[in-house]
């Protein structure tokens, strides 16, 4: 029964990691640091900090990662995109991270600054994430995570060519893939099994987005090719004015997805926290991950 593991006692066999974004204001920074303090006792394997669209948060990402290094025992992973930058610029950022003690990079291509604009590489830059991975490995022996898309990336012609792209990133030196969010455990598990046939032993970690606001999620999903099932809309119908009820539904839903993944053998979960601790904390608790 897929539900049993959810409510089992702490099992000690689950790893988690948390993703944050760099705050824009002092108030947002305070929320982020409260969330980090709340989640830190769960001993995540790493915490990652995103890089704004088109590299727009270069300084803020760096500052957030450095503060994690300085003020916590957590292992940071810095997201880095190659869109709109030369190889030299990227290599310098990577070098600075290495010197600051950062050993893990989430290496991404990124998207063009204008929504919907077709991707075109910088003439002096890395053309895609696979090239970026190879470039980073040449700078220093970073641990590298890359993005994976169980439902395919919008730029890919087919599931097969999308998988080939992931294989190129792995062959360039990536240690692990973290997926875009999804709502079907079967879809992830099939994707994982296909990958395992092609590259046995490579780690693939599901990215879990606890959804408490369908409209916001739809906006993210439009940009990244994740499908929002119709039942998700129905599930949140009538809850617009009931934020606490929405949170409970969100935790239940994500908890159930994680339970199904656990039953399918998944032992590492990556949470898109949106800088809020409560949902990720509650779901970890259900999974038996305790302080
Ligand atoms: P790539 O792997 O380079 O490629 C994306 C797609 O383009 C491929 O699936 C493939 O279909 C096609 N493609 C690439 N190369 C080729 C080729 N040679 N031939 C044919 N087709 C090709 N964005 C940010 O801006 N900042 C972040 O911090 C950030 N963090 C993310 C974290 C995770 C876990 C995920 C899943 C995504 C994240 N993104 C982030 C979004 C990401 O930048 C976008 O999805 C972007 O459109 C693709 O990046 P990628 O690294 O997957 O690109």
From TrEMBL:
Keyword rRNA-binding belongs to the record: no
Gene Ontology molecular function terms on file: FAD binding; methylenetetrahydrofolate reductase (NADH) activity
Keywords from the UniProt entry: Amino-acid biosynthesis, FAD, Flavoprotein, Methionine biosynthesis, NAD, Oxidoreductase
Catalytic activity: (6S)-5-methyl-5,6,7,8-tetrahydrofolate + NAD(+) = (6R)-5,10-methylene-5,6,7,8-tetrahydrofolate + NADH + H(+)
Domain of life (superkingdom): Bacteria
GO aspect biological process, one term: tetrahydrofolate interconversion
Organism: Sphingomonas cremea
UniProt cofactor(s): FAD
Protein name listed in UniProt: Methylenetetrahydrofolate reductase
Keyword Ligase: no
Family to which the UniProt record says this protein belongs: Belongs to the methylenetetrahydrofolate reductase family.
E.C. number(s) listed in UniProt: 1.5.1.54
PANTHER family: METHYLENETETRAHYDROFOLATE REDUCTASE, METHYLENETETRAHYDROFOLATE REDUCTASE (NADPH)
Known pathway: One-carbon metabolism; tetrahydrofolate interconversion; Amino-acid biosynthesis; L-methionine biosynthesis via de novo pathway
Cited Pfam families: MTHFR (PF02219)
Any single Gene Ontology cellular-component annotation: cytosol
């Amino acid at each position: 029964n897929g539900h049993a593991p959810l409510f089992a006692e702490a099992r000690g066999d689950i790893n988690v990691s948390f993703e944050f974004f760099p705050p824009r204001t002092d108030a947002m920074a305070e929320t982020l640091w409260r969330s980090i303090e709340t989640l830190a006792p769960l001993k995540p394997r790493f915490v990652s900090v995103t890089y704004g669209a088109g590299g727009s948060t270069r300084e803020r990402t760096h500052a957030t990662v450095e503060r994690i290094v300085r003020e916590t025992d957590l292992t940071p992973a810095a997201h880095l995109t190659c869109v709109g930058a030369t190889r030299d610029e990227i290599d310098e950022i990577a070098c600075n991270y290495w010197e600051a003690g950062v050993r893990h990079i989430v290496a991404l291509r990124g998207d063009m600054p204008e929504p919907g604009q077709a991707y075109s590489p910088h003439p002096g830059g890395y053309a895609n994430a696979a090239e970026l991975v190879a470039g980073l490995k040449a700078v220093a022996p970073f641990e590298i995570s890359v993005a994976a898309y169980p439902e395919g990336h919008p730029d890919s012609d087919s599931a097969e060519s999308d998988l080939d792209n992931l294989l190129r990133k792995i062959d360039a030196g990536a240690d692990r893939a973290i997926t875009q969010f999804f709502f079907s455990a079967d879809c992830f598990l099939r994707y994982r099994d296909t990958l395992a046939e092609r590259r046995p032993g490579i780690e693939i970690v599901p990215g879990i987005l606890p959804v408490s606001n369908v409209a916001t999620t739809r906006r993210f999903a439009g940009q990244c090719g994740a499908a929002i099932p119709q039942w998700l809309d129905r599930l949140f119908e009538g809850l617009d004015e009931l934020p606490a009820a929405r949170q409970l539904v969100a935790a239940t839903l994500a908890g159930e997805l994680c339970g199904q993944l656990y039953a399918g053998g998944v032992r590492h979960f990556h949470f898109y926290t949106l800088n809020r601790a409560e949902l990720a904390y509650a779901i970890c608790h259900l999974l038996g991950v305790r302080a």
